[in-house]
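Q: I'm writing up a methods section and want to include an example of the input and output format. Could you take the sequence below and give the corresponding predicted structure tokens, formatted cleanly so I can copy it straight into the document?
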Amino acid sequence: MATPGQLMFARRLGPTARLLIWLLVGVSCVVLDTRYHALEGVRSGFSLLLQPVREAMRAPAVVATELGGFFTRHRLLQKERDTLLAERARLIVGVNTARDLARENAELRALMQLQTRPGQQLARAAMLYQGHDWFSQRITLDLGAGAGLRSGLPVVDAIGLVGQLSRVFPGASEVTLVSNPDQLTPVFVERTGQRGLAAGSGHGQMELRYMPTQTDIQPGDRLLTSGIDRVYPAGIPVARVSRVSRSQSSPYLRVECLPLAGLDRSRAVLILVAEPQVTQP
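A: Here is the clean output for your methods example:
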């Protein structure tokens, strides 16, 4: 039985009727929105409400893109850094090689100027190595008896006298430096012409021996070979006076000198094979 207030013959709408009603509502909304833009406010409201949802859904893709770009840029920067480091190393090697070549070229140019004396026969040589004991003050050259060398020949570089050949082998030769304690070199003071005897004192230094206390000599004076021993040609720079001291217990001055030649630095040297020929009138 029907309850009070309930219609006895009321029936629910069927599926077809409900579908038609919703289609009618939808078509009406489309017409209203298309012609009168009646749903713009509703659309804007829904868009504002759904904005956080869209951002949350896009966040994983944005994070993945940023991470991928970061690692890609990191790899590119690493490759670029490695390339720059390799290029820097090559440039440093090139600069060092250029400096070395410039120094060698300067030495060779200076040595070429020594060939202006007519009749002077020279042999170019390069230093192979210093002696095993540097205190012996000897170096070894890459020329020997095969190049016509013999013991006793003078050896010079672009600045001054290096020493004298002491031993000659078939393919090499040994030079006793002017700073060797057993080496004596007749010299004269360029400023005054005073003659003396320069001797090696070891450790790359020299001293001028047997100079009386009244001798006019001072620091800075250059010593040149005198040529009276007929071993060294006259006028080759040997050393520069570095210190002059007097002792009350000795009648001679103590004159300390520094060799002008690069004894342990010069790589290219010249060996004076023969004296210039002087024509007699």
